[in-house]
Design a protein that fits this description.
Elements: H1 16-33, H2 44-67, H3 73-86, H4 88-97, H5 101-117, H6 125-128, H7 138-144, E1 152-155, E2 159-162, H8 163-175, H9 183-203, H10 205-212, H11 218-233
Antiparallel strand pairs: 1-2
């Protein structure tokens, strides 16, 4: 599940501020081009083909490997906590871009606590101490900036997304402060995140299997659940003017 980053988004020797500016312009452009498409699925034929590919990858590769981790929930939990801690520096960057400086400070403190007292993040000491997580991403940053979610999009090896969230994912990979580490450390962090995703597939196998293998239409089910959860996460079901009922299929005729 390695993600390909465009060459011009890589941090090798370039000015970080310039990279960030280019990334922001790219993300705003990609998200803005897709505004107004949230009420339909114009890419459905392509999305369904990619969904079939992802389903085959899960059935013949990811699911068998992940099933081997279900017998040791502690290992899976440690991998998940470690990967979550590795994502905190990027969360801080996005908190700042969203002008949520209190949350940025909380995430800095959380990263420090888990890194120092949680053995590099293997144990989530911060949550045990009652510290908030404040998870975020560049897709949420674009939402805060007023960029619409765009069209629904299924991405190879990654699964459900939207044009806005996929642009945000690419930018997150580019602006992650961990990219400033040496090449071996960056590869190690990427491997840890990949291992955590595989472990999570094993931890939540019953739920994932019910969506992918027990639904009458796994594509429509995955699409609906993703949009429900994402809109809820972004607070779009909190009585705002742009309220969208997360339990109503936006693509129903």
């Amino acid at each position: 599940m390695m993600r390909v980053i465009p060459t011009f988004l890589t941090p090798s020797g370039q000015n970080p501020a310039r990279n960030l500016a280019l990334c922001c312009l790219l993300a705003v452009g990609l998200g803005g081009c897709a505004d107004g498409l949230a009420d339909r699925d114009p890419l459905e034929p392509l999305n369904r083909d990619i969904h079939a590919f992802n389903l085959a990858v899960d059935q013949f590769a990811l699911r068998p490997v992940a099933s081997s981790t279900t017998g040791n929930g502690e290992v899976a939990a440690r991998l998940s906590d470690f990967a979550g801690n590795l994502g905190k520096p990027a969360d801080v960057v996005n908190n700042v871009l969203q002008l949520r400086l209190v949350k940025a400070s909380e995430n800095v403190l959380r990263f420090g606590v888990n890194t120092i007292f949680g053995l590099g993040g293997l144990f989530d000491v911060a949550s045990a101490a009652g510290m908030p997580e404040n998870d975020t991403d560049f897709g949420e940053t674009l939402h805060v900036w007023g960029i619409g979610e765009g069209a629904y999009l299924e991405v190879p090896f990654m699964g459900p997304s939207t044009t806005r969230d996929f642009a945000g994912t690419l930018i997150d990979m580019a602006i992650d402060p961990l990219n400033q580490l040496n090449r071996d450390q960056v590869r190690g962090a990427a491997a840890a995140k990949l291992a955590a995703r595989v472990a999570d597939r094993g931890r939540y196998s019953e739920m994932v299997d019910s969506i992918l293998y027990e639904s009458a239409d796994s594509y429509a089910q995955a699409r609906l659940l993703y949009l429900q959860n994402r809109r809820h996460q972004l607070g779009q079901d909190s009585g705002e003017d742009d309220f969208v009922d997360p339990y109503e299929d936006p693509y129903a005729e």
